[in-house]
Amino acid sequence: MPSAAADEVASSLPVGAGDQRSRRAAGRAARERAPRRDVGREDPEDRGRDALAVLLAQNAIRAEDLLPVRNGRMAASPWTYYRGAAAVMAADLGSRPHSGLVVQLCGDAHLLNFGLWATPERNLSFDLRDFDETLPGPFEWDVARLVASVVVLARTHGVSAGGAEEAVAACLRAYRERMSGYAAARWLDVWYDLVTVDRFLGVFSEPDRIRGAAHIERRARKRTHRGAFRKLTEHRGGHLRITEDPPIRQHRDDGLAEELFAAYRDSLADERRHLLDRFTLVDTVRQVVGVGSVGMRVHLLLLEGRDGGDPLFLQIKQAGASVYEPFCGPSRYGGHGRRVVEGKRLVQSATDVFVGWAAARGHDYYVRQFRDMKVVADGALVAPRLREFATACGAVLARSHARTGDPVAITAYIGRGRAFDEGMGTFADAYADRTERDHRRLVDALASGRLPSAPGW
Questions:
Q1: Which of 52, 143, 223, 346 has the most CB atoms at less than 10 Å from its CB?
Q2: How far apart are CA 74 and CA 85, in angstroms?
Q3: What residue spans define the domains of the chain?
């Protein structure tokens, strides 16, 4: 059941025009509900829940044959565990006092859920990229998820404790300063703010800017529909087919993907439905993606336009309830696929023209383009430039929160002193410790045979 504060959270979006004085007062009053330094308090002996049980409870709506793959991927390192354990962190955050300053949460704002991809105008933008858990909720939960990810990634990839501390500080400073700027900005200026690739690269040193620009250009050029077409298709028996790579990609004969595609069409605006109708569905496969998403039903669809050189790939992904719903109340949307898409549109400056949703056979789904110039860093690439990358992520998170929350109240809550930053910094270290303990429990459960793991993961 939702917590006692859930109704307050769910009813607090959107922000009205209110006068500046009352909005600042609301931010300062929130310090009484959730003292800023208290965010760093962690009692490892008084958690009140079993992290492994929280993870196992998510299996109820997942494809059972893929659960061993999920377990194996999460067990690979504390970082992969952290990526897959959003539900565990939501339960930990939801048991604590919160500010009541509501934004549209990304819900899983870890470092590698920020990336570059093409806007509808075909310009590269740096933004949040994953919204499976999106829901209105307290702004500091996204901040906590982000800064803890900085420390977990740093430890996993050999960054010193001092380097991790600097990166967390830089991330929080970028968030605070950017939010303060939005507090003085016009609403339309906040809404239209876009972090271009040049602006993203601006936080790096000149040598890294040059190398980064070249890397991004190469990756974006490859990660297109035509690039996927060259890599992932073949002619077999006179027909164009997506290549198989079990268990990552496998054909299924149950007709589910085709059923979902037909339902998805109705979720599009007229002009986008017109564009979609210029393509013909050619082939579908079941796909395994991510870490925490493994086990959710995902389909990759190949469509063909005017000829064999005009492909379109769509990804249809199952959407369950947000892990924050027990603490923030249910989504106002009837289906979780629509919840994801509407949250994505609220948080991102520019959104894929083909996003939509569907439902079939008792499950909800959302749809998006596959790849479409998406450039996502990996941990090994980010680690040597952790401070700079965390700075860029902190600034983007502030932008997303300012779009849907009240930047004046959030700025007043954070204040000009060090209380918020110190509390969040302490939390990041403590939660990284907790993640390592939880990861060890998962590894032990797999080693003992209590949980299954697929060979090779």
A1: 143
A2: 8
A3: 10-220+375-447, 222-369
